[in-house]
Every structure is written in structure tokens, then in C-alpha cells.
Amino acid sequence: MNNPNAHHKSRLFQVAAGFSVLLLLVGCAAVGPDYVAPDPPLPDTWQTQLEDGLRTESVDPDQLARWWEGLDDPLLTELIEETLSANPDLKQALARVRQSRASRAVTDADRFPSLDVGGSVTTNRISKASSNTASGVERDWYEAGFDAGWEIDVFGGVRRSVEAADADLQSVQAEMDDVRVSLAAEVARNYIDARTYQYRLDVALANIKAQEETVDLIESRFEAGLSNELDIQQALYNLEDARSQLPTLRSGLEATKNRLAVLSGRTPGSLHRQLEARQPIPVPPLTVAVGVPANALRRRPDIRSAERQLAAQSARIGVATAELYPKFQLFGTIGLEAIDSGNFFDKASRFWSLGPSVSWRIFDAGAIRGNIEIQNAVQAQYLAAYEGAVLGALEEVENALTTYAEEQFRRSHLKAAVVAAQRAAALAQDRYTAGLVDFSNVLDAQRSLLSFQDSLAVSEGTVTTNLITLY
After folding, report:
1. Least crowded by CB within 10 Å, which of 85, 143, 144, 254?
2. 109: exposed, middle or buried (C-beta count within 10 Å: 0-12, 13-18, 19+)?
3. 126 CB contacts (<8 Å, ≥6 apart)?
């Protein structure tokens, strides 16, 4: 005579054995390529000759993270810090990080079993037309239970999905860092532009005052019969030409102030009072450590983001490859069901089921292998994008090193030109007063002086802006 309990125990043993085997299989290596970060060939040193304060010394990461403090301008530091806490673009980037982190959590949940709870109470009535027995009788049905399911990740498709989600999150975090770097640089550049416009306005106003004095002098000489009307008209158009530059400079200054306000999350015009007082253009530190190419690339968030995107795509090849293999699931149900609520919790109302299942896409007309090829092609694109980002970064830094050094040479020559132009303007004025030269010499000297002084003001700002670009 068969023993029901023995049969029941035998079935449980078989299920447990099968479950143990599946758990062992989970430890198998995930299919698809194991990612290895690319190691692009990089020069040991910069091609640009480092001079004028540039050094290959190692960069302190903490100082680099707050590079603007090296410009020693408290208002600039305040504006950058405010921007890094209130800028809308940075808020968007932070929201993208939260989205990516939540997406990663959703993907990671696939590694664990799912459990659903359900229950129902229904009333059925058998129609007289459909049955000759118990016709017209209403019956209640009570049911409640738990349903559990688990896809056992034998071939690592889920693990590769989590790997891709991790890399995506790291890429988005690097993109947020890139936004921070860009915003700090944009605030600093606009701040330098604002101070440069103020410097240029001061230069223009000083020249206008000098030319007004020249007009007064010529008019006095004309009344004394020592000059002619041509000299007066030439002095006047020279003066008006200088005055005509003021609106362009003032509008440029207003635009930079408004841009700074918007960058810091304020309404346009809200920074005018803070920026009203004239302040000198921030001067770069005497020495700037730039490190070596390899270190510079490791610090760039855009390079880190490109590398993480490549890593994520490598993992997605594994996800696609896992579709070639069978999928194993373990499912189970336990609950209570009865037609009488009074018997709902009786032992006889219990039911359960437990067992593994397997599914395998044996024939799909090559769709799986086609998708694997697609993912490999996408990985090739990300690899090319990474290599392009590395080359572009090297180009940007080399150019920034060159422009920073060369602009300092240009500034030194402009300083010498301004000194010579000031002397020439004074000599021309004296010689004209003495009647030794005509007024055209004074006009040329004044125009040259204004041009050189304005160019020097622009160059002063450009030197600092080039350092910001380098950072």
C-alpha cells in the first residue's frame, strides 16, 4: 500500500534538490565580455613648452577642486559657490543622477525573488439554463495566498544588467561633475569680462577727458589766432569717436552682469549693486601646476563619463548574449481557499505549489544574434567616442597652455606700447603747442594711445580667462 506521506516527502526532496542545483549554477561566470578599461597611448610630457609660471608639478586635488580661490577675489568665490548651489542646469544634472540611481535600484531588484499577496471573495450563481443540478444556487468563494517567483541568473544576464546600470550611474555622476566644472568656468569668465569692461570704460573715460581738454586748448588757441577751424573740427570728431565707444562698452558690461545673475539662479539685474564698485581684474597666481597628460585626463569628468558609457555598453553585450541560453525560474504558491468563510482557516483549506521551470528561445530567426551584433557595433561607437574625447582633451589642454603663455607675451608688449604711446601723445601735444607740428600728429598719438590702452585692458582679462580655460 502506497504511503502518501512518503510520496509527499519524496516530491519535496526532488524539488529541494533541483533548487540546490539551480543555486549552484548561479555562481557560474556571466556570459559576454569582461570589461577592461582602455589604455590609450599618452605622451609623457606636454608638447607645449611650459613657461611663464606653468609647471609640471603634481596638482593638489583639493586645490584644483576650488581653483577659483587662487584668483583671490572674494566676490568671485561667492558668486561661484552660489551658482554651484542654485543654478538650474546643475539642479537638472542632480535630478538626472537621482533618476539614474533609482533606475539602477530597479535593475538590481531583478536579482531577488518577487512576492505577491492576493485575496478575493466572489459569489457565483449557476443559471438554470446551464445545469440541471443545483440550478439557481448561489455560492461564495474565498481565496487568499502568496505567489513567489524568481528568475535564477544562471548565465549572468541580470548581473550584466546591474553592471551596466552601475556604469550608467557613474557616467551620469561624471556628467554632473562636468556641469559643475563648466558652470564655475562660465561664472569666472563672465566675471572677468565684467571687470574687463569696467577697466575699458575707465580707459575710455580718461581718454575722453584728455581729449576734452585738448578741444578746450584748441578753441583757446583759435580765439587767440594761433589755430584754425580745421584743428577744432578734427579735435571734435576725435572726441566724438571716443565717446561713441561708451555705449558698446556699457551694454557689454550690462550683459555680463545679467548673465552672472542668471547663472547664480537670480533674476537679471539683481547683481548690479554688488558689481557696481570698480575692482581690478583678478590676477593669476605666479605659478600654476598642470601635471602630466595622464593625470590631466584622469581629472576630466567628460573623459570619465565617456569611459563609463563604454563600460556600460560592454555589459549590455553580456545581457544580449545571455538570451542565447535557457532561463530558469523557480515559482511557488501558498494560500487558503474555501466556499465557506467559517472553514477558511481550516487545515483542509490550505493549498500550495512549488517547482522550477525552464524556457529557451530555440528558434528566433537570428534575432538574438542580430541583437548581439548590434550591441557590439554600439560598443565600437562608444570606444571611438572615448578615443575622440581623449584626443580632443589633449588638444584643448595643449591649446590652453599655448594661449595662456602667448597672451602673457602679448600683454608685456602692449604694456611697452602703452608707455611709448603715452610719451608720444605728450610730446605731440607739447610740439603742437609750440607750433612745431600740425594737429594731425596729436590726433594720431591720441588715437594710438586709446587703442593700445584698450587692447591692454582686453589682454589683462584674456590672460586670466585663458587660465580659467586651462582649469
Report:
1. 85
2. exposed
3. 134, 135, 136, 137, 139
Taking a C-beta distance cutoff of 8 angstroms, is the pair 343, 140 a contact? no
Contact between residue 471 and residue 447 where contact means Cβ atoms under 8 Å apart = no
Q: Which residues on adjacent β-strands are paired with residue 124?
A: 139
Provide, rounded to the nearest whole percent, the portion of the chain with pLDDT above 90.
47
CB 138 within 8 A of CB 266: no
pLDDT, tens digit, 9 for 90 and up, residues 54-111: 887 777 788 888 989 989 999 999 999 999 999 999 899 999 999 999 998 988 888 8
**Cβ-based neighbour number of residue 9 at 10 Å:** 11
Q: Distance (Å, rounded) from C-alpha 209 to C-alpha 198? A: 16
Q: Which amino acid is at 48?
A: T
What does the radius of gyration of the chain's CA atoms come to, in whole angstroms?
39
Reading the block at residue 222, the C-alpha cell is 583759435
Torsion angle in degrees (nearest 10) through CA of 423, 429, 431, 435:
170
Gap between the Cα atoms of 360 and 324, Å rounded? 8
